[in-house]
Every structure is written in C-alpha cells, then in structure tokens.
Write a structure and sequence with these properties.
Helices cover 45% and strands 12% of the residues. With 369 residues, the chain is of the alpha/beta class. It is globular, with a radius of gyration of 20 Å.
C-alpha cells in the first residue's frame, strides 16, 4: 500500500456519516461560538469535535499564534518582522529587509536560536496523541517567507532583476524550513508534516508555473522528503489558483492539498477530486464567500452533503473544511449545519462544551483550532 493509499484510508477511516472535519474560524466568529457555547475561544475546536490537532512552529505562529486584544497593537517577531493587528488579524507592518542592500540581505540570519520557543506551542498538541490526528505546521516555507522578510514588492523585483540573490534567499529560507521539519519529525510522534506557501493569486499563480518549477519546486521537494523519510504524510497549503502545479506537488510527494479555494480558476473541488483524487487527498472546498455567510441553514447542509458525496465518490481521502477561514458574518446556525453535514450534531457539540466548562481554565498556546 502506497503512502497516498494509506492517507486515503486513514482520512476516510470513519463512516460516511462521520467524515473527518477541521475548520478554521475568523477570530470574531470564534468569539461568538465561544459565547454561545460558554467556553474559552481557544477551546472552540475541542467542542466542535475537530479531528486534527496542530500548532504553528514557523512564522505563521508570529502571524496567527500571537493574539492581540486591541486593534493597532503589535509585536516584532524572531524574524525581525513587525506585525500589527488590523481587522482581527495580525498584518505585516514592516519587513526587515525591504530597504536592505545586497550585502545586508545575504547576511540575514533565520532565528535558529529560537527553536525551543517555537516548538513550545506543540506541547498541548502532543497531549492529544492517540485521540486526534497530530500535525506540525512549519509554513511558510519558501516564497511566502521570502515575501515576509523582504517585502512582497521588493521580493518580486529581485526575482525578476536579481534572480541569483533571490535564489540565495530562498536557499536560506529552505534551510530553516528543513531545520524545523527535521526537529518536528524527531521530537514528536506526528501523523503529518504541514508545509506550504501562498503561491496563487485570485486569477493565476503569483509566479509563472515555469518559474515556480525552476526556483521553488526543488527546494520544496527537499522539505517534503523529510516528512516522507520519517514515514509521515505531508500536507501542503496554498490559497489561490494553483491548478497548474498540482501534478508537480503529487510528483514530489505531497499527500494532502489545502484549502481548495473554489472561487479561483481551475479550483473546483469536484473536478480536482475527479482528476487527482486517486493520487491526492483534499482538505477544503466549502465556499466561504457566498454559501456560508449568505446561505440558509438548509442550503449549507445540502450543499455540504453534496460536496462530501462528490469528493468521496470521485476521489480518495477527504477532510471537510472551508476554502478559507469561516468569515465573521457567518450565522452560527450555518456553522452547526456544516458539522451536522459531516455527522457531528449540535447536541454533541453542546455536550462537549458542557464538559469543557467543568475543566480547569487553561490559556491559549498557539494551537490551531
């Protein structure tokens, strides 16, 4: 049985009326769910019955794992990136190399000395070993990491006008991602290694597919291989229109693709499952632009059931998830309808929330819910 066969079997180990589920919520809707369920926001995923437990150990921890209470609050991370909370999320205020010359760029060092602090967020995750599917997120790994430290505009200028400098920066980013991947695989009993970069835009890829294959693919293959060498499934995240490189991702050993942004060209989840489902598992595909915020509860349930049926019929493994974070304007009844479509009733959710209320209070530690 191949690795992809095993991931298909594992992710679909539950009966069709209990599909694996993992949703990410905008902070505002997490807060609303927490109030409705009378539990802390960081326990929402536990109450909903999400099957995956995962934490950020790469730069996504700095973006999503550090939560500021007020708009305008911010921090500087171990990479030297300045962040500020805007619209409920941390956004980049300043990239450390955006105005640096070539010598300064080549001298830039990734935060190897912060390894212990970065991996601390995995402590509550591994406590769920045996009860949940355990992952470690080392993303962003390559191109998106370059955008963060150099600034997206300057990074693209470099790629076009100073490709050797860009290759040097990508090599440095890859080396740090390889460090995180090896440490994660050696330290923890994982089910998968989570990698990725946002390399797709709304209409096409940020780099041409050929440029991606030349500059990104060989480095990504090295990172993916770490997980495969440890007998793990490897997940890859990229928003946007990435249809042209899906065969490449399969070729280098990616097992699971997320999030399947349905509004982008070529990213219809049913079509992708029909074409690639025998070789690739998918996570995502529930529309967050129209269906979740504006559909009725019944429409959400019926469309989600249709998606589940088609993904399982045409493909292999499938994890029910949204094509992006569930937006803040989504009615709570639609959230419960989503889970109900996967076989998780609202009654079960409220029972788990009641059990959580009897536990000692704990603080958020960067676990992805």
């Amino acid at each position: 049985m191949t690795s992809r066969d095993r991931v298909h079997a594992a992710l679909n180990r539950l009966p069709v009326d209990r599909l694996p589920v993992w949703f990410w919520f905008h902070p505002e809707i997490s807060a609303r769910l927490a109030r409705d369920l009378e539990i802390p926001p960081h326990r929402v995923g536990d109450a909903m019955g999400d099957d995956v437990r995962q934490a950020w150990v790469g730069n996504n921890f700095a973006m999503e794992g550090i939560v500021h209470e007020q708009e305008g609050e911010g921090h500087t991370d171990a990479w030297g990136i300045e962040w500020v909370r805007e619209g409920g999320f941390n956004q980049i205020k300043r990239s450390p190399l955006e105005h640096s010359d070539e010598a300064e760029v080549r001298d830039y060092s990734y935060p190897y000395s912060y390894t212990e602090e970065l991996f601390a967020s995995m402590t509550p995750v591994v406590a769920s070993e045996g009860r949940s599917f355990i992952g470690c997120d080392i993303s962003p790994c390559l191109l998106e990491m370059l955008f963060r430290v150099r600034g997206m505009e300057q990074a693209l200028i470099d790629i076009a006008g100073a490709p050797e400098l860009s290759r040097s920066m990508l090599r440095s980013a890859a080396n740090f991602s390889l460090h995180l991947a090896r440490e994660a695989c050696n330290r923890f009993s994982l089910d998968w290694l989570w990698t990725g970069d946002d390399v797709g835009g709304q209409e096409s890829m940020i780099l041409s597919p050929q440029r991606w294959r030349e500059m990104i693919k060989p480095l990504l293959q090295e990172i993916v291989q770490v997980g495969r060498d440890h007998g793990l499934w490897v997940a890859y995240h990229s928003c946007g229109a990435i249809r042209p490189i899906i065969p490449d991702l399969i070729e280098i050993g990616v097992d699971v693709l997320n999030p399947v942004q349905t509004t982008c060209p070529g990213m219809d989840p049913v079509e992708l499952a029909h074409e690639f489902g025998s070789r690739l598992a998918f996570m995502g595909g529930v529309d967050t632009q129209q269906l979740l915020p504006f559909g009725t509860r019944q429409e959400v349930f019926e469309e989600t059931r249709r998606l589940i049926d088609m993904m399982i019929t045409n493909g292999g493994g499938y994890i029910l998830a949204a094509s992006h974070a569930v937006p803040p304007e989504t009615p709570l009844e639609n959230v419960y309808a989503l889970y109900n479509a996967a076989g998780v009733s609202e009654e079960e959710i409220r029972d788990r929330a009641a059990a959580i209320r009897t536990e000692p209070t704990t603080k958020s530690t960067g676990v992805m819910q």
